[in-house]
Each structure stands twice: as C-alpha cells, then as structure tokens.
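4.2 Preliminary Data

To establish feasibility before requesting continued support, the project team ran the inverse folding procedure on a target of 264 residues. The structure was first converted into the token representation described in Section 3, and no sequence information of any kind was made available to the design step. The complete token record follows.
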C-alpha cells in the first residue's frame, strides 16, 4: 500500500516498511509529508497484517528535518499559522510515540532537527555509522520545542543542555552514547541488523508487546511511588495471564511448538 506521494509503505512478512520518499529534498518534512506519514501510521495501526513498523528514508539521507521552503514561508506567517504548522509535526510524533505495535527506525543517513524527533519517538533505533545529526534550531533563532518531550525522555537533561545549546554535529556513535540509538552499523550491515531485530520482534506475542509498551511508560515512577506501581503491574500481569494470547503462549512453550502468531 502507498500513503501519498511523499511516503511509501510496503508490507512484507508482518513488517510495514514505511519510507519518507522525497530523496530530491533529502526527505525534508513539509506539511504534505507529515500528513502522509500520519496517514500511513494510522493505516498500519489497524492493519492486521502489520506486526511492526520500520521507518526509513529513501536514498542516502534519513531526513533533513524541516523543509526549507516551508520554513522560509513560516517566517512571514502569523503566530496562529505557525502554531498549526508546528502541531502537524507534534501529531505525527505523538502517533509514533504511542503506536500500539513495535517501531524500528532504520536510520540510513543524516538526520537533523525534526528527524531526531522521529528517531526519539521510535522504540528501537539502528543508525548507519557514517550518518551525522544535529539539533540545529538555535542557529536559526528557534528551539527544538516540538521534539523535546520525546528526545528528553531518551537522552535526559545533561545531553540536551549540550546539544540543544551548541547545535554541534553529532556522529552516530554520539547518538548511541547519549541514548538515541541502540546500534550503529556499517551501511552493508544495516539491513541485516534491522532484519535480525524484526525477526526477534515477530517471535513475540502482539498483544503482549502492545501491553509492554504501555507498561514501560506507566512503570516509570518516582522512587516513592514504585511500590504502588508494582502492585498495579501485578494486576496487569494477572489480567494478561488469563487472556487467550497468554494461554496460547504457555501452551506452545510447554508443547515445544511455535505459537500461533509466529510467521517463521
């Protein structure tokens, strides 16, 4: 299936391969691209053939961030128009961050500004080791506001203070060091690494994976609240154990067979 001209989606073996498809514009995020990406994610969320989403960029760049032509136009737009524009990106990041299925960012090249929001909003990130990244906003007199909730959840205040303020170029190794990437690999290894992660994901129960994503978000509590959270998580676990998916998982384990959701 295809969602708009700027974003393509191909489903194979349970994986929706979603690609920003403006290589001539370095996959920059104009409004039409953001809306197409939002539509693609919405379709993948309800498609029973999709177990996970892999997000990448066409060509050799992941995403250049904001579209320069639109950025120039926004400089002369009203505050209300700028708000609507910014909320378009926010809507996509929220959809990606709260996506009910596992998400994997296949970062095949450079990523700037808003691209780092897309990366931060994905569950797992594999970046090619030659790629460069930067939060360039302060050099334009603005701030990485919309991406900040998602980025800060991954890198924390310390790293944000440095890279939001300096707009320094970061290597893929730095991205991994500060918590925005799980793996950095050569271009030749990128597909095999992403394929291995996808294979591991597809062995899991889809309902349990959706619940695990909610669990991770809800379990992050202040130290004094961890006991309350643990009791709540016990209730969630008990509820899941009596559901059909868990029953099938345990039955398959003890029968030494593959669970019904396994595609391999």
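Position-by-position output of the design step:
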């Amino acid at each position: 299936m295809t969602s708009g001209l700027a974003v393509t989606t191909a489903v194979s073996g349970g994986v929706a391969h979603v690609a920003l498809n403006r290589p001539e514009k370095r996959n920059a995020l104009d409004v039409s691209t953001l809306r197409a990406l939002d539509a693609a994610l919405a379709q993948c969320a309800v498609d029973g053939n999709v177990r996970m989403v892999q997000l990448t960029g066409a060509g050799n760049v992941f995403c250049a961030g904001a579209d320069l032509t639109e950025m120039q136009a926004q400089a002369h737009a009203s505050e209300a128009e700028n708000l609507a524009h910014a909320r378009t990106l926010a809507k996509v990041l929220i959809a990606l961050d709260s996506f009910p299925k596992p998400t994997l960012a296949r970062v095949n090249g450079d990523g700037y500004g808003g691209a780092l929001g897309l990366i931060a909003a994905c569950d797992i990130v594999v970046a090619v080791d030659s790629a460069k990244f930067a939060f360039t906003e302060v050099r334009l007199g603005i701030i990485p506001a919309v991406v900040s909730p998602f980025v800060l959840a991954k890198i924390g205040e310390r790293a944000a203070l440095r890279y939001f303020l300096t707009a320094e170029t970061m290597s893929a190794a730095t991205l991994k060091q500060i918590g925005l990437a799980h793996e950095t690999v050569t271009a030749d290894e990128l597909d095999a690494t992403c394929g291995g992660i996808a294979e591991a994901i597809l062995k899991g129960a889809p309902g349990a994976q959706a619940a695990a994503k909610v669990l991770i978000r809800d379990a992050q509590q202040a130290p004094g609240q961890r006991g309350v959270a643990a009791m709540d998580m016990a209730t969630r676990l008990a509820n899941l154990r009596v559901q059909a998916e868990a029953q099938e998982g345990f039955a398959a384990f003890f029968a030494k067979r593959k669970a019904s959701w396994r595609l391999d």
